[in-house]
Amino acid sequence: xxxxxxxxxxxxxxxxxxxxxxxxxxxxxxxxxxxxxxxxxxxxxxxxxxxxxxxxxxxxxxxxxxxxxxxxxxxxxxxxxx
Length: 82
Fold this sequence. Notes:
Strand content: 35-45%
Low-confidence stretches: none
Number of strands: 7
């Protein structure tokens, strides 16, 4: 699922970012402006998508770090420690 062409600015699908795969996703989505599905940033993961402007939703788990400086509209869920 999803496109693999870095020159495209739309990624179709959902992504789950973990501490182990965050660098891979950052490289894969470096030029992406729109993610049609959700972005799930798991515990202790980091996500840096400087060109992302739109996503279906973004879920940020405990101790995760996210940097989306161009994000304009999204449904955001932040999960605190219990």
